[in-house]
Amino acid sequence: MKKIIFTDKAPAPIGPYSQAVLSGNTLYTSGQIALHPETGVLITTDIETETKQVMENMKAVLEAAGMDFENVIKATIFISNMDDFARINSIYGSYFNEKTAPARETVQVARLPKSVNVEISMIAAK
């Protein structure tokens, strides 16, 4: 059975999808972009600030499911410019313990929703 996860501390879905779905003990999150959850403003000042907002949105979704970054077993990072990888990776990495970090792939894509520079999705388990 699946349970829909929703929190107003992360951006509301803008289409036919959920912020996350819990199936058994496994959480599947939708991709998060740098939308500020209270104002709806897109935060793209610089790649570090944008990535931090994405991670804070993801943190809120994880917390709504009773989890945190230690529960994450897989992450996918979509970026529009691989030249931003090191700066994105630095912010992303600050949310994890390097010794227990999840599996991950980083993929450069032609375009992301709302023309953002980074989108991140995760799978977590209790």
TrEMBL record:
Any idea which GO molecular function terms this record carries?
A: deaminase activity
Question: What GO cellular component is one of the record's annotations?
Answer: cytosol
SUPFAM superfamilies noted in UniProt: YjgF-like
Q: Which residues cross the membrane?
A: none
Q: Which branch of life, at top level?
A: Bacteria
Q: Which NCBIfam families match?
A: Rid family detoxifying hydrolase (TIGR00004)
User: PANTHER family given for it?
Assistant: 2-IMINOBUTANOATE/2-IMINOPROPANOATE DEAMINASE RIDA, PROTEIN HMF1-RELATED
Query: Which family does the record claim for this protein?
Result: Belongs to the RutC family.
- Protein name as annotated: Reactive intermediate/imine deaminase
**Species assigned in the record:** Flavobacterium cyanobacteriorum
